[in-house]
Each structure stands twice: as C-alpha cells, then as structure tokens.
Amino acid sequence: MLAVNFVQPQGRVTEPGASPRLVLASASPRRAQLLASLGLTFEVMAPSVDETPANGESPAHLVERLAQAKVLEIAWENHEALVIGADTTVTLDGVAINKPSGFEENRRFIERLAGRRHEVFTGHALAYGGRRESFVVRTVVEFRPLSEPEIVAYCRSGEGLDKAGGYAIQGLGATLVTGIEGCYPNVMGLSLVNVVLAARRLGVNLV
Length: 207
Prior knowledge:
Distance between the termini: 24 Å
Structural class: alpha+beta
Largest sheet: 8 strands, mixed
Order of helices and strands: EEHEHEEHEEHEHH
Shape: elongated
Number of strands: 8
Helix content: 25-40%
Strand content: 25-35%
C-alpha cells in the first residue's frame, strides 16, 4: 500500500543541473545510511517532536503526521533546502510495536512476532520551496518460528533496542525473516525509491 498526498505545483524548482541544500530531519543512523547510499551530501538535523499517538489514531496516520511535523519544524528555518523526514512503526494485528525499553520488553516483542507476519509503516514527508509531499509506505515482513534460546540470544545482542519492532532487518535480524512483501529499505526507515520520486515531483532530481 502506498498512499500519496499530492500538492499543486507552486514555488520554485531547481534549474537543470542545480541542487538545493539537502537536510535529513531525523536522528536515525539507518536513515542517514540509506540516504548516503545514493551518493548524496546532506545535513542531519534532529527535530524535537512529541511522538505520542492521538486517541484512536491509526498507525499509518500516526507515522505520516509525525513525519510531517518533523519536516515542518526543520523547514521553518531552512526553507531554501529540500527537507526529508520519516517515522516508522511496526504493527501486529493492528497493534503498534514500537521501540522496546529494555531486554525483557524486546524479548516479549520478538516472541509475539515469531512465526507471524507483521506490517511496517513508514511515513515520509518532504518540503521544498513552499511545497510539501507526504505519503505512507507499507511493507509486510514474515518471521520464521523461533525457539526461546534463539529469541534470548537475539535480544541479548542489543541490536533491536532502538528500533521499532525490536529488530534490525539489515543486521542479525535478517536471520529471523523468511519473507518480505514490499519495499525493503522501508523496513529500515526510508523508502528510497518513493523519496526520489517525491523529490522529483517537487522539482529536485536526487539521482
């Protein structure tokens, strides 16, 4: 599922061959690594946004709202830059599984995900020249059945402590995954193909 909120063309766009400043409105090392993999030069600015869900808010609405809030905070004083922001959550049976607070919660998260399919929602937002784009990308991930010793060993690695869902698909967590439907980088926190296409709609060619 890919939902895109389009905006009407207005404001400036880059001239052929020109590139605006690029700012990543996220403190996530994974998102920085993904953006850097495109060979881009960018600044990182970490916004301070309250990430508390609203009552009854769906995971897709939450991540899009937070991505928009992050971008707007940074774009306010960097209106000449292309600002990119994102927010990710993992859901199982419609219930969000965010970053675990420690080993025990991480273990409970992985126990719940073992042998099941879950959804990863990443909200994306971009702002440039007075124009904005936002969208949500959904990826389905399936875990293989896991024994208790396997779960404990993974959680003891500490890899999942700062990640939605309590695992890192680009690390040891790859050994837990048997299948994926959708955009792989989206699980890491940034759907590169959709970011590139959204930037192009704003008049900026990233690649």
